[in-house]
Amino acid sequence: MVGRSSLPDGALFLGLDSSTQSVKATVLSNELIIVASETVNFDSELPHYKTEGGVYRDPTDDGRIYSPTIMWVEALELLLEKLKPKINFSKVVAVSGSGQQHGSVYWKKGSQAVLSSLDPGKSLVSQLKDAFSTMDSPIWMDSSTTKQCREVENAVGGALELSKLTGSRAYERFTGPQIRKIYQTAPHIYENTERISLVSSFMASILVGCYASIDETDGAGMNLMDINKRTWSKAVLEATAPDLEQKLGNLAPACAAAGRISSYFVERHQFDKNCFVIQWSGDNPNSLAGLTLNTPGDLAISLGTSDTVFGITAEAKPSLEGHVFPNPVEPDGYMVMLCYKNGSLTREDVRNQCAEKSWDIFNNYLEKTPPLNGGRLGFYYKDHEILPPLPVGFHRYIVENFSDASSDNLKECEVRAIVEGQMLSMRGHAERFGMPNPPKRIIATGGASSNESILKLIAKIFGCPVFTVERPDSASLGAALRAAHGWLCKEEGGFVPISRMYTGNLEKTSLGAKLAVPAPGDEGRELLKKYTVLMKKRMEIERRLVEKIGRA
């Protein structure tokens, strides 16, 4: 059996993550141990772009949220400069990456030539600043394409038909509806576009010096790919915009090599000319890889700018809720996912208003308030929510027969309501989507996974143990692991199960998950029954809210 010895001694594997608020790097050794990491935060380190949370919000177009494309280019340059003193780039044999899902980049006509002839004596920003037909990249937080979503769904026979075809019904943040909006509202931009990239394939394109393919896993987050055939769906392409297939290029498996690294990076940063760039993919698929999530009974919860719940399955069963993507590290399998737009930024808002902008005070309130919060339920939507499809707003309820114990301090109750409400919603939707109930275990990742008070609440509400990984940024870790995996597949001339790199050695690597909160005991099981009742009450209230003011 091939083990970690398959990876050459002294080799390094670089994983990059271009996310909403930052770019990150994680470097793995051939022993799959983290040897270096680095981060560039957009707001604080690139303040001249004047983003807030890495994005712009258009005050004239309800729900339009985007980022400046060139900022991601400058961040990549800065990240490599910060990483240079920490590692020898010539030892990197493969690099891969993670991009925030659904975001799109529009290369203008003639840009392929620019990309393939970059001058290593000049910065990327100076050479690519005029390479785009629009400087604005719509991102996953955008919710301005409701009209386009309905048009695409109607064209293929309805929301469920589109879901069966592509793995998801039409969602405003998905790339297909975003492309359709540009085609309809700014046809000159669409006409002048030579290639449309996702954030993932955009960054890969810079590294290889030509247009990199969109990978099949991230491609499933566009409402454009046939989830079963893993090719572009002609019917949906035609319903979206004309001549779209040639602007998208071909799809590629996530474990394939996009090509060797561009001579620009060889000469400017001293990468080895034989270093491979493995297909980039989306941030959630990379997290799935980084968490070594390969057991169907396990769930992962990522607590970041968005909150996501995901797991794996052997077959695709798309529905009107949630998403089905190809598994990025298992060619015949799938990953299933739920996504919430109101994650860490919404928790931070409540912290700022109720806990003196202090996580210590926030956690203290969370610990001292009794479970179930006296039946208080809160729905907090700083931005238009994806799941459920509700507009900006805040809704508070008190459920009868849960008032046996509660705090008199409303700020304390508000803190518990935001976290308890988010976790109850995750559990309710996960069960409705057919995810394990209860899960064998939950692996928590993302920034808030380092918050023990939140992890304790997850264990109580889901009724299972909660594990965490060594580093909360599992997307860049997963990208580094996928770089090693892609290199191994290339070396062996075909697909190799990713587990072959770590089976029997997981605890000796940086990939192992450690128990953070054990499963609830007898007392916890009684509480779990009460949480089950409260969860059902919440889902009923949510259903009524959607009927009354829902955005779908």
UniProtKB/TrEMBL annotation:
Residues 139-288 form the Carbohydrate kinase FGGY N-terminal domain. It is an enzyme of class 2 (transferase). GO terms for molecular function: ATP binding; D-xylulokinase activity. Residues 299-487 form the Carbohydrate kinase FGGY C-terminal domain. GO terms for biological process: D-xylose metabolic process. Transmembrane segments: none annotated. Mediates 1-deoxy-D-xylulose (DX) phosphorylation in the cytoplasm prior to the translocation of 1-deoxy-D-xylulose 5-phosphate into plastids. Can also phosphorylate D-xylulose (Xyl). Uses preferentially ATP as cosubstrate. Belongs to the FGGY kinase family. This is Xylulose kinase. It comes from Triticum aestivum. The lineage of its organism: Eukaryota, Viridiplantae, Streptophyta, Embryophyta, Tracheophyta.
